[in-house]
Specification:
Blueprint: E1 45-54, E2 57-67, E3 72-76, H1 83-90, E4 98-103, E5 106-107, H2 112-118, E6 119-122, H3 134-144, H4 149-162, H5 178-190, E7 196-200, H6 208-223, E8 227-232, H7 235-241, E9 244-249, E10 252-258, H8 259-263, H9 269-276
Helix pairs in contact: 3-4
The chain binds adenosine-5'-triphosphate.
Membrane topology: Peripheral membrane protein
GO biological process, one term: response to antibiotic
Pfam family, one: ABC_tran
Length: 295
């Protein structure tokens, strides 16, 4: 598999290698804006030695990963592979036991304000302010992000329109459907025009029409230079949307690189994925009693 980053324009903000966090609960040192230590282009996301244990179990077991800027990146893996735990640590929602995470050269835990102004996050199990209307939620988010009121109004109107939420803009979020919640969450994550957008299962529970709308917005965002990192189980979706993928299994990255390279000789990403995570051997052949006939 290819080693990233690739094809990303070099940036001026380069600097020294960064320290790891050290032991559990350590916060590392501020190194805002530092670049790739090898002199290469600064990756959108740089992860080194990332660990998270829950009791005896290592949910994330020493991940090393560079995600190139300006790409549509899919993080895929079977249930329990550690995708959500990884994304939570990368976005500053969950403190790692050990390891380093940088967003465009800024340390997630040592320089959280710089990082949070650069990222948008649509987490799994998104919690929203339910007693606000969709429009109020975006107005509130925009002001929290420090945007001027007129700019918040303009962007809010445009995002509500593009995401087909204008008719529901005055409805309380508590009354939104699953798909509407994803869309208003996406609008809130995009409002400040982040450099990197993280989405945990953005298409789960979303109907095909809304999925197409979300897809269009994300494609517009990457065309403008933004980086999307999203997790999904749906290989067809990843294959049609992403140009770069990272495959996780049992807390580790087992493959990463441009989509075509990870797919390799396999006919589809799904085949490559099943082979990479070792699931192609589980065919259900042993269940010879199953079939609804004799009990
Ligand atoms: N708060 C927690 N406490 C204990 N175990 C946890 C916790 N969060 C995650 N885990 C465990 O860590 C492992 C990785 O979970 P994670 O949710 O990151 O996987 P995932 O790849 O996102 O899975 P899925 O695709 O099913 O959402 C799982 O075995 C899970 O049970």
């Amino acid at each position: 598999m290819a080693q990233e980053p690739d094809g990303t324009p070099p940036r001026a903000d380069r600097g020294a290698p960064l320290p790891y966090y050290g032991t559990a609960g350590g916060s590392g040192q501020a190194q805002g804006g530092a670049g790739a230590p090898d002199g290469g282009p600064v990756p959108a996301v740089r992860v080194r030695g990332l660990w998270k244990r829950f009791g005896e179990q290592a949910a994330v077991a020493g991940i090393e990963l560079d995600l190139p800027a300006g790409r549509f990146i899919g993080l895929v893996g079977p249930n329990g592979a550690g995708k959500t735990t990884t994304l939570s640590m990368v976005t500053g929602l969950l403190r790692p036991d050990d390891g380093l995470v940088q967003i465009n050269g800024h340390d997630v835990w040592a320089d959280p304000v710089a990082v949070k102004s650069r990222i948008g996050v649509l987490p799994e199990g998104l919690r929203l302010f339910e007693r606000l209307s969709g429009r109020e939620l975006l107005a509130y988010t925009g002001r929290l992000r420090g945007l001027p009121g007129a700019e918040v109004d303009k962007r809010t109107g445009q995002l509500l329109d593009v995401l087909d939420l204008t008719a529901a803009q005055h409805k309380l979020v508590v009354d939104y459907s699953t798909g509407m919640r994803k869309k208003i969450g996406l609008a809130a994550a995009l409002l400040h025009n982040p450099e990197v957008l993280f989405l945990d299962e953005p298409f789960e529970g979303v109907d095909p029409v809304s999925a197409q709308v979300i897809r269009g917005v994300l494609e517009r965002y990457t065309a403008g230079g933004g980086t999307v990192v999203f997790s999904s189980h749906v290989m067809e979706l990843v294959e049609s949307l992403c140009d770069w993928v990272a495959v996780m299994a049992a807390g580790r990255i087992v493959a990463r690189g441009p989509l075509a390279e990870v797919r390799g000789e396999a006919p589809t990403l799904q085949d490559a994925f099943l082979s990479l995570v070792g699931a192609d051997r589980r065919t259900g052949q042993d269940l010879d009693w199953l079939g609804g006939g004799s009990r």
